[in-house]
Design a protein that fits this description.
Purple Acid Phosphatase, chain A, domain 2; five-stranded mixed sheet; 8 helices; 10 strands; globular
Length: 279
Amino acid sequence: MKIAIISDIHGNLEALKTALIDMKNRKVDKIFCLGDIVEKGCHGEECVKLVRENCEVVVQGNCDVDIDPSVYKISKHNIPVELMQKRANWNNESLSEESKKYLLNLPFSYEFYMSGSLVRLFHAHPEKKTGVIINEDSYDAKYKMFEPSPNTVSQKVADVVIYGHLHAPFMNKMYNKTLINVGSVGNSFNVVRDDKKDSNVLETTAVQYLILDGEFGSQEYNASFSFEFVRIPYDIDKELQDLEQNIEPEAYEKELREGRYRNMTKILEKKQELDKENL
């Protein structure tokens, strides 16, 4: 069975449509979504509709609940409170009551067996929807991603963990386990950038998702299990046709066209934290 895992659509309708067409051509059997369906792009409502129609499993991302401006009391990562509230208001007003109810009631995590491995899905971290574990983190930090929490479906240690939130795909093997980030369908970027060293091919601006191929539901370790990272270009110009409706048009266009994150403060804070640990 082929299972596509998507994440971080962020209101990018053209990217989501492109992904769904590609999955159909590849004869994918099931589609699971790791959250952050809305925010950033102008088509949150349409993306929620398509996800509900096509995804068998959907877990909740941090942006799926960022629709209440009253929860923002203090500045975070040098983002002014007023801007965070403005984003929440815009997100709130762009969604129907039915879609908001759907997003607010999504589960935190999901898990299943495939070819003998316990696979656990969540948006960012087993304990919270905003945790950040990157490829450069220590093995000890990464191992905690396999451990259960009060938010996970079971209290077993997982064999395979698949998550989103980072917008950049990678896979690590450790302790006879597999840790995978699926990247982003609609808002891909790479924080390791250098104008002199960057490839001429802007691969980070493409649709990104993952395909699992194995025996779904089997707890017996007697079948193949493979992981395929997929990267597909899409029509960015078409997605940006209604850019004037976006409350942060320049930042959104830069992310889509260049694959550069609009707020590097959070990334730099994480890097400083890792540098201290490695001293």
